Automatic annotation (TrEMBL):
Cofactor(s) the record lists: a divalent metal cation
Chief place where the protein resides: cytoplasm
Matching Gene3D superfamilies: Survival protein SurE-like phosphatase/nucleotidase
Record's protein name: 5'-nucleotidase SurE
Keywords of this entry: Cytoplasm, Hydrolase, Metal-binding, Nucleotide-binding
EC number(s) per entry: 3.1.3.5
Residues annotated as binding a divalent metal cation: 8-9, 43, 96
PANTHER family, per the entry: 5'-NUCLEOTIDASE SURE, 5'_3'-NUCLEOTIDASE SURE
A GO-annotated cellular component: cytoplasm
GO molecular function: 3'-nucleotidase activity; 5'-nucleotidase activity; exopolyphosphatase activity; metal ion binding; nucleotide binding
Upper lineage: Bacteria, Pseudomonadati, Pseudomonadota, Alphaproteobacteria, Rhodobacterales
Cofactor notes: Binds 1 divalent metal cation per subunit.
Catalytic activity as recorded in UniProt: a ribonucleoside 5'-phosphate + H2O = a ribonucleoside + phosphate
Domain Survival protein SurE-like phosphatase/nucleotidase positions: 3-197
Length: 262
């Protein structure tokens, strides 16, 4: 099996080492793991592509490359330059430091990498690790749940998950809870949730020169979403698996809108 790996935390991020190890187990001794990751952190860039300017790509080691672009750029670079059109059997994006549940999904470069892979007709899974009060005390480090459960989740999705070849094909968003690996309750298939009464915002700061700068600031991540959705499952100790598509159409509104407008 040939697997392409990317992330949004950058080529030196600890979560990338985790997903490389997962990919190596899945690919097997006769398989190939190719890494194309951003040279610098690209968190929050979503599905951005470097459409209006070129990006440098550097080979750091055999089958290991860094680009100046986004995770979606990395997938494009991996497919059309690094692999020269050879199709990977799977694209893995992550493991992100921090959850990509609920509305975080819409901002996530980790999800953007998986989304681009799906648009290119490839199987894709994004993996993220929730960070919480207990993360710093885990014996295996904050990525312990992803390290010990990640391979099984990916393998189960490959063997028993739903895959299709439609125009907007399925891809998967996986989030690991911030509890020790031996306390993980299992896997929950969950819809994308929404954290009510919290959102991204800005925090102003004034520089020594008197100029004002704005930091983008996220809301509290311990706010549960509705029962049966991703963040609620994660905060209750479950690994969430959410099937997704890139089609943003509100299909349930089409017939009513036709009646009103056509």
């Amino acid at each position: 099996m040939r697997i392409l790996v990317t992330n949004d935390d950058g080529i030196n991020a600890p979560g990338l080492k985790v997903i490389e190890a997962i990919a190596a187990e899945i690919a097997g001794p006769d398989g190939e793991v190719w890494v194309v990751a951003p040279a610098f952190e690209q968190s929050g860039v979503g599905h951005k592509i470097s459409y209006t300017h070129p990006m440098m790509i550097m080979e750091l080691a055999p089958r290991r490359f860094a680009t100046e672009g986004s995770p979606a750029d990395c997938v494009l670079a991996g497919l059309y330059e690094v692999l020269d059109g050879a199709r990977p059997d799977l694209v893995l994006s992550g493991v992100n430091r921090g959850n990509n549940s609920a509305e975080n999904t819409l901002y996530s470069g980790t999800i953007g990498g998986a989304m681009e892979a799906a648009l290119q007709g490839m199987k894709a899974i994004a993996l993220s690790q929730y960070i919480g009060p207990r993360s710093a005390d885990m014996e295996g480090g904050m990525f312990e749940p992803a390290v010990l459960h990640g391979t099984k989740v990916v393998r189960d999705l490959l063997e028993r998950g739903l895959w299709d070849d439609t125009d907007y094909r399925l891809f998967y968003n996986v989030n690991f809870p911030a509890v020790p690996a031996d306390e993980v309750k299992g896997v929950k298939v969950a819809a994308q949730g929404f954290r009510r009464h919290t959102s991204f915002g800005v925090e102003p700061h004034v520089s020594p020169s008197g100029r004002k700068f704005l930091w983008i600031k996220g809301g509290p991540q311990g706010v549960p979403t509705l029962p049966g959705t991703d963040a609620a499952a994660n905060l209750d100790g479950w690994i969430s698996v959410t099937p997704m598509r890139c089609d943003l159409t509100a299909h349930e509104s089409l017939d009513t809108l036709r009646e009103r407008l056509e």
